[in-house]
């Protein structure tokens, strides 16, 4: 049995990271999705490439019309089956998650819940309660995606 995750209450970053990690755990263990690290590695590589280009631009200024190909390259998109994004504003107990089909952005299922439902007064993460809510949300999303 796993040791329960303990967080410091009012530490929004840690709370959001705990919830996000739990979504990944749910998707990979319960729904058998695979997390594609290729996208993450590509982002890091493009970020590094952007830093190199910024350094070059700083020392060898290129006027705007000539640097359009670089801007276009930075706008390239990478496809995936579903996209899950989350928001937890600082000092706000409302955690929002949006599940969407990356091929059809019209198919999306946002949901919002208070983090009070997932952490007790000592900061222990109630993962089973969170996963129970995720089950319902992903069922709703799959119904939406089957309609289209």
Automatic annotation (TrEMBL):
Membrane topology, as annotated: Multi-pass membrane protein
GO molecular function: peptidase activity
GO cellular-component term (any): signal peptidase complex
Transmembrane domains' residue ranges: 44-62
GO biological process: protein targeting to ER; signal peptide processing
InterPro entries: Spc2/SPCS2
Entry's localization field: Endoplasmic reticulum membrane
Highest taxon in the source lineage: Eukaryota
Alphabetical keyword list: Endoplasmic reticulum, Membrane, Transmembrane, Transmembrane helix
Pfam families: SPC25
Function: Component of the signal peptidase complex (SPC) which catalyzes the cleavage of N-terminal signal sequences from nascent proteins as they are translocated into the lumen of the endoplasmic reticulum. Enhances the enzymatic activity of SPC and facilitates the interactions between different components of the translocation site.
Similarity-based family: Belongs to the SPCS2 family.
UniProt name for this protein: Signal peptidase complex subunit 2
